[in-house]
Amino acid sequence: MRVLIVEDEKSLVDIIKKGLEEEGYAVDVAYDGEDGLFTAENEPSDVIVLDIMLPVIDGMTILKKIRKAGVKTPVLMLTAKDTVMDKVSGLDSGADDYLTKPFHFEELLARLRALIRRGSEVNASVVEIGDLTVNIATHEVRRGGKDVLLSAREYSLLEYMAVNRNKVLSRTLLSEHLYDHDFDLDSNVIDVFINRIRNKIDRGFNIKLIHTIRGAGYMIKE
Ligand code: CA
After folding, report:
1. pLDDT tens-place string over residues 173-208
2. Residue 167: other Cβ atoms inside 10 A
3. For 111-165, how does the pLDDT look when each residue is reduced to its tens digit (9 = 90+)?
4. pLDDT at residue 81, as a whole number
5. b vs e for 39-49, b when ≥16 Cβ sit within 10 Å of the residue's Cβ?
6. What are 4's strand-pairing partners?
7. Where are the domains of the chain?
8. Is the previous residue joined to 102 through a cis bond, with omega within 30 degrees of 0?
9. Which of 21, 63, 120, 176 is the most exposed place for a label (fewest CB within 10 A)?
10. Distance from residue 63's CA to the centre of ligand 1 (Å)
11. CB 213 within 8 A of CB 168
12. Alpha helix positions (H), the chain
């Protein structure tokens, strides 16, 4: 999953970015409103963390503009203020959730997970594909009742596929949602990760869950 952070407080960005990357998220950062607006409209983010008080263009204006432009990506607004009026006007402008500074990183994580779920067709925090379960809240993966240990990157790829189960996902799409803008895209990387995940969840099972769709990409389905 790929998160865009639009926030001008560098120290806060550093903490959030590091924490999210440790959880396996790909993170793009914009430090002012102009860059934030451009990135929100042009990069395929799964969720946007948007500060209100920003240089050049404020967060509320960015939100209105991207919604008007048809960007449906879930948006979590960050604000130092917590007055009822700010929340009302933010939600009216198309924000999906709100977090008042200062906040605990764990709360940010939980809210981002909820927003990503809401943006997909998955409603529960545990996605089931046959006898495979992917717990989006705890990152626990089980196949046939047994724990499967995955690296953060492997987990991210599996989670993205699980949330988008039964859909053909191209290598380009997968790499766009797993890596940030600065990553030098090489779609072979996706093949390498798919092989690793296959070894861990499909090997030894008669029913394979990860399918290669020739010329198109990959799909996870029962
Ligand atoms: Ca700010």
Report:
1. 998 888 887 776 676 889 999 999 999 999 999 999
2. 14
3. 998 898 877 777 678 999 999 999 988 899 999 999 999 998 899 999 999 999 9
4. 65
5. bbeebebbbbb
6. 28, 48
7. 2-119, 126-220
8. yes
9. 21
10. 15
11. yes
12. 10-22, 33-42, 59-68, 84-92, 105-119, 152-163, 171-178, 188-201
What per-residue confidence (pLDDT) applies to 185? 65
CA of 70 to the centre of ligand 1 (A): 25
Q: What's the CA-to-centroid distance between 7 and ligand 1, angstroms?
A: 6
Count of all residues that appear for the chain in the document = 222
Residue 10 pLDDT level (bands cut at 50, 70, 90): very high
CA of 26 to the centre of ligand 1 (A): 22
> The domain 2-119 belongs to what CATH superfamily?
Response regulator (3.40.50.2300)
Q: Does domain 126-220 have CATH number 3.30.1490.20?
A: no
